[in-house]
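We were asked to recover a plausible sequence for a given structure. The inputs and outputs are reproduced exactly as logged, with field labels preserved.

PROBLEM: sequence recovery
POSITIONS: 633
GIVEN STRUCTURE:
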C-alpha cells in the first residue's frame, strides 16, 4: 500500500463510563506498515479511586497497589503512539479517556483522528460489536476485557479487513508526540511481583531508630490478622522513615509472630484456620515458617497480648460496596452501641469491601492511622461485643445509648426528623425527595458542589449513574424530579440515585480534576452505529439489553438540525406534459375534421376536443405555478 508509518492499536479498561472515571489498564499493539506485529506493551494503572466494576475486567484494588500512576507512563505511552495511525474498536471511548488522563497528568496530548474498526466492521461486515466481528473473521480473543488481549484481537481484525478484504486505511493521520521516553514503570496483568515477604532487604543501617512507629503501624495492619499489599507497602515506607535496618525489621516481625502464637494458644487449641492464618502472616513478614510451626506444635506459655476489641461509643466507618448493605451494618453497629460516621482521628476502624481500596475514606484512614478491616472481621468484632460470656458493665437508664441522629451534614433536617431517619442513607434520601424534589441535589449537604460525582456501586444501578453523568455533566445540579426524566428511571431507581448522593455526603468528597471541555474533541458517531459507551454499558449486564446513552453531553447549540430534502416542484413537469397533450389533441382533431368527420359529431372528435380544452387549462395553470415557484426560489 506504500505506507511509510505503522499503526498503534490501543485498548483500555476503566473504572466506569463517566469523564470522572479512570483508566486501570492499558494495552498497546504496535504494527508495521504491512500489519505485522512489531511489539506490544501493557500495564495496570493505579486509578487512585475505588474500582467498583472489577467483575467485568477482573482488575481489583489489590492488583493495582504496586501499579504506576498514569502520569508515570504518560510520556512513554506518547512515544509509543508517536508517528503512527491510532486504532481502536469504539475509538471515541479510548480517545476520550486518554485525552482526560493526559490533561490530568499535565502531559503532552498528541492524539489525532483515530481509525475506528467498529465503523469498518459496521460498513464491511454488517456488525458493530467486537465479539461478533471476531466470530465472522474467525479470530479468537484469548482473554475478553483484558486490555492487551483485546488490543491483539483488534489488530488481527484490522489485518483481516485490510489484507484479506482490501479495505483502504491510507487517509488517516498519525499521532504527534514531541516528548520522548525510552522506558517507564509497568506492571502487566498477572505479572505483579510477589508481595509476600517483600519488605525491602535494602533498608538503611542508620543509628537513629524509631521502632515505635513501625510497631504501631504493624499493630494497625494486624488488627484483622491479615496484611494487604497496600499495608505491606506502608510498613516498608514506615521502616525506612524510622531508620530501621533489615535485621531490626526481622526482629520486630518475629516478636509479633510469637505474640500471635501465644494469643492463638490462649484457648488451649490451635485450629486449622489459626494455623493457616499465622503461616500466611509469617510469609508476608518474612519470618521463618519452620519457627512458626514449632511455635504452633505445643502450647507457649507467656503473657497473652491484648486482643483488639470494639467498645460501645467508639466510632466506626464504612466504605466500598459491601456484601451486606451498608444500612444493615449501620443498624447492627448502632444496636451494639457504636457510633457510625465518617473517618476521623478517633475512629476505631474503617470497614472496607477491599482493604486495598483507594476510596476517599480509605486514604483518610491511612493518613490518620485508622485500621482498615474487612467486612468479615468486622462481623467477628460485633460478635465478640454481643458474646454473653464476656462480662459487660451494667447500663442504667441514664447511661442508655441515645438514639442515633442523622449525620450533621444534613442541616435541612429538623431535630425530630434527624432522630427519625437516624444514620440510614435510604431514609435520609426519602426525606429529601419528599421535602425538596425540585431543589439541586448538591444542596443535600453544604460541602457538596454541582461537579461532584457519586461513587459507583458495582451493581446494576451504575448504568443509570453513567447515563446521568453523560446527560448532566454537573450531576448534582439536577434535582430529584430531573432524575425521573432519565430513560428507565422511575421512583425506585430515583431513590437509589439520591441515596448515592447521601452516601457521597457522608463518605467525604475528593475534588475531581477539571478537564477543559475543549480538550476532549470527539467525533459524534453515526446515528445508526452504537456508541462506545453503549457497548461498554452492555458489558455491565450481558443478560439485558443495553440502554442507549449519549457519548457527549446534550447541548442544543451543538446539534445540527436534520436537513429535510427539498421536494422538487412538479408544476414544470405537469406544464410540459399538458402542453404536449394539448398540441397532440389539437392536431388529431384537425385531421379528424378534414377526413371522415367534417361535422365533428363523432365520439372520437368529441374526445379529442375535450383533450384540447382540458390540456390547455392544465397547461395554463401549471405554467403559472411553475413560473411563481421559479421566481420564489
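RECOVERED SEQUENCE:
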Amino acid at each position: 500500500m506504500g505506507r511509510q508509518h505503522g499503526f498503534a492499536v490501543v485498548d483500555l479498561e476503566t473504572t466506569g463510563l463517566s469523564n470522572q472515571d479512570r483508566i486501570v489498564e492499558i494495552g498497546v499493539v504496535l504494527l508495521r506498515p504491512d500489519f505485522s506485529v512489531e511489539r506490544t506493551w501493557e500495564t495496570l494503572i493505579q486509578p487512585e479511586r475505588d474500582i467498583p466494576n472489577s467483575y467485568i475486567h477482573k482488575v481489583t484494588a489489590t492488583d493495582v497497589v504496586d501499579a504506576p500512576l498514569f502520569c508515570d507512563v504518560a510520556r512513554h505511552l506518547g512515544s509509543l503512539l508517536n508517528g503512527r495511525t491510532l486504532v481502536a474498536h469504539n475509538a471515541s471511548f479510548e480517545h476520550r479517556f486518554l485525552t482526560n488522563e493526559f490533561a490530568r497528568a499535565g502531559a503532552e496530548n498528541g492524539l489525532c483522528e483515530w481509525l475506528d474498526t467498529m465503523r469498518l466492521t459496521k460498513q464491511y461486515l454488517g456488525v458493530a460489536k467486537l465479539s461478533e466481528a471476531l466470530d465472522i473473521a474467525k479470530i479468537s480473543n484469548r482473554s475478553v476485557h483484558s486490555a492487551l488481549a483485546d488490543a491483539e484481537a483488534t489488530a488481527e481484525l484490522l489485518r483481516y479487513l485490510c489484507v484479506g478484504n482490501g479495505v483502504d486505511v491510507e487517509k488517516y493521520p498519525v499521532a504527534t508526540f514531541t516528548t520522548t521516553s525510552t522506558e517507564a514503570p509497568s506492571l502487566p496483568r498477572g505479572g505483579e511481583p510477589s508481595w509476600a515477604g517483600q519488605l525491602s532487604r535494602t533498608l538503611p543501617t542508620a543509628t537513629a531508630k524509631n521502632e515505635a512507629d513501625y510497631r504501631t503501624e504493624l499493630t494497625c495492619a494486624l488488627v484483622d490478622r491479615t496484611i494487604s499489599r497496600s499495608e505491606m507497602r506502608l510498613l516498608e515506607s514506615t521502616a525506612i522513615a524510622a531508620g530501621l535496618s533489615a535485621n531490626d525489621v526481622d526482629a520486630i516481625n518475629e516478636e509479633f509472630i510469637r505474640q500471635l502464637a501465644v494469643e492463638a494458644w490462649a484457648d488451649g487449641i490451635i485450629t486449622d484456620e489459626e494455623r493457616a492464618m499465622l503461616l500466611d502472616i509469617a510469609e508476608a513478614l518474612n519470618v521463618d515458617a519452620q519457627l512458626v510451626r514449632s511455635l504452633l506444635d505445643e502450647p507457649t506459655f507467656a503473657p497473652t497480648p491484648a486482643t483488639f476489641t470494639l467498645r460501645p461509643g467508639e466510632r466506626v466507618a464504612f466504605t466500598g460496596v459491601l456484601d451486606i448493605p451498608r444500612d444493615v451494618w449501620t443498624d447492627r453497629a448502632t444496636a451494639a452501641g457504636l457510633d457510625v460516621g465518617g473517618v476521623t482521628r478517633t475512629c476505631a476502624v474503617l470497614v472496607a469491601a477491599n482493604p486495598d481500596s483507594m476510596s476517599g475514606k480509605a486514604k483518610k484512614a491511612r493518613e490518620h492511622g485508622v485500621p482498615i478491616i474487612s467486612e468479615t472481621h468486622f462481623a467477628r468484632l460485633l460478635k465478640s461485643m454481643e458474646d454473653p460470656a464476656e462480662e459487660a458493665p451494667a447500663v442504667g437508664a441514664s447511661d442508655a445509648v441515645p438514639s442515633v441522629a442523622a449525620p450533621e451534614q444534613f442541616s435541612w433536617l429538623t431535630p425530630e426528623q434527624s432522630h427519625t431517619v437516624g444514620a440510614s442513607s435510604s431514609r435520609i434520601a426519602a426525606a429529601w425527595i419528599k421535602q425538596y424534589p425540585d431543589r439541586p441535589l448538591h444542596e443535600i449537604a453544604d460541602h457538596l458542589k454541582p461537579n461532584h460525582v457519586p461513587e459507583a456501586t458495582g451493581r446494576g444501578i451504575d448504568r443509570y449513574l453513567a447515563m446521568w453523568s453523560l446527560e448532566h455533566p454537573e450531576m448534582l445540579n439536577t434535582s430529584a424530579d430531573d432524575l425521573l426524566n432519565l430513560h428507565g428511571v422511575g421512583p425506585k431507581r430515583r431513590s437509589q440515585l439520591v441515596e448515592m448522593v447521601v452516601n457521597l455526603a457522608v463518605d467525604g468528597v475528593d475534588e475531581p480534576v477539571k478537564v477543559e471541555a475543549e480538550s476532549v474533541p470527539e467525533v459524534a458517531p453515526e446515528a445508526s452505529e452504537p456508541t462506545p459507551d453503549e457497548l461498554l454499558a452492555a458489558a455491565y449486564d450481558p443478560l439485558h439489553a443495553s440502554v442507549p446513552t449519549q457519548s457527549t453531553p446534550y447541548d442544543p447549540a451543538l446539534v445540527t438540525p436534520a436537513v429535510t430534502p427539498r421536494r422538487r416542484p412538479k408544476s414544470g413537469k405537469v406544464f410540459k406534459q399538458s402542453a404536449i397533450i394539448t398540441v397532440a389533441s389539437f392536431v388529431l382533431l384537425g385531421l379528424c375534421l378534414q377526413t371522415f368527420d367534417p361535422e365533428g359529431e363523432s365520439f372520437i372528435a368529441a374526445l379529442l376536443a375535450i383533450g384540447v380544452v382540458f390540456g390547455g387549462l392544465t397547461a395554463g395553470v401549471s405554467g403559472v405555478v411553475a413560473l411563481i415557484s421559479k421566481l420564489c426560489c
